[in-house]
Input
Amino acid sequence: MSERMPLVLGLDIGGTSTRAAFLSAKGELLGLARGGGANINSSPGDLPRQLGAVIATAQAQVREHLAAGTVAEVVACVAGVAGSGAAAGDRITELLRGALSYAGIAAPAEIVPDPVIAFAAGSAQPEGSVLLAGTGAASFRIEGFAEAARADALGWLLGDVGGGIWIALEGLRAGAASLDGRATPTALAPAAAQFAADHLGESTGDPLQDLIRVVHGTRPAELGSFARTVARLARGGEASEPDPTAAEIVARAAGGLLTSLAAVSPRPASTVVLAGSVLTKDGPVRSTVRDHLVHQGLTTLDAAEPVVGAVCLAAHRAGWDQPDPRALSAAVDAMETRAAPATRPAAPPPSSRKRPPAALALDHYRPEDHDRLYEICVRTGDSGDDATSKYREPELLGHIYLGAYLALEPEHALVLRDPDGVAQGYCVATAETARFEQRCETEWWPALRERYPMPRPEEDSPDAALIRKIHQPGGTNPALLQDFPAHLHIDLLPVAQGGGNGKRLLLAVLDELHADGAPGVHLGVGGRNARAIGFYEHVGLRTVIHHPWGLTMGTALPLH
Output
């Protein structure tokens, strides 16, 4: 008779990515997987199947840890889901049930709102408070790992005092008031003018008019990046004194957050979990809030990744001893580090490349391919060569040149698989570049801009250059899109190069783009990647534009 090992499952379901984690009763992390987003409002595709595939990938890792004859049995599941309010509850429940059914899991499942997940990702105790300041701001009292009261969370028009958007708008308002003489001089004035000029690309000649155009033409979440400028000026540095106006805004932000916390916990519980980038990343708001809470004799803890909170809550629902979120967060980091591209062997040198014994299989993208395709992206990211060693965070390349396609248009993502089913190359594409770039502005870049703040002007590392692309991706020249509105990216590991594999992959994607009505397609290729340029020319693409970095190549569709 098979021995059964009880497990719990934690899920973090977001718009751009999803993570699943399995935990044993002994507190051991046995499986961890990540895939594309599964937001019911913005993520495309068969979401129950896609989420189920992420769970199944983590299940496969669990099986590697089980002794012969042992069967895993999931006894509880908790899912943290962005936007899991009452209006969307039924649809999210349906999504979760379908995903668990796909993975063969029949355990009780619970959908938990973000603040409770954030609290459990910081505290092992069931009572306390959460103070959150990221793009928005709110506070929550938690009782029995459930939300008992909340304050603020009203959005930028009515509240979110102390959040990134609030700080940014206060800074821009102060800069504008200084520019037109309504307020004393402040370093926020030239900073606001520069912020507007950077966003416009071309100034009107009047910084106030530039500000008006930017503020009224930019989504609030994107304006939030100015909060970092306010914080920097408030803190000052070796070359400058703290700016009094910026410091006053920061003080009001911290005061607003503490007022919000007092509204839900007049006598604060001994533990306050800090969540959101404004409070978990070093800065004057965080230091002011923490100093005040510590002075009151309270314990402050930083929230870990949401999947940590989800799996901790699942353990609680199963009646197990509560895991230490910090220890579990370290285990998550260790498991992801072991799976990261930087730890995997680099591609062999050209002299040792082996051709596949047979043609690789052409297949559509599956959510479980997500991490593998990110690996391929970085291993081919230096004009076809391995770029892993160039970047401190190799995933940045995937975030910029791959992830949005997998999240927004997975139907146009094809892969080449070896006999073991492992992806060795991929091609991603969109039939409407202009529309795709608009979707990225609303559905892809905002979360990454929150995760990766704009580097300081003096930072010149390769990582900084990629992060600037996240904040300022630019747009494709409309003149190019008149004839070539579609575009694609294709990356092949050495084992997939030759044997007709790349040509089959490219032609299949071109056929799909033509079927979607695209009259032409373009792509970019680095000038040092002579092999790729020759390949594209052989297939039938021609050079359309020469750049300092390489070429834009294109062709009309159908390709004859």
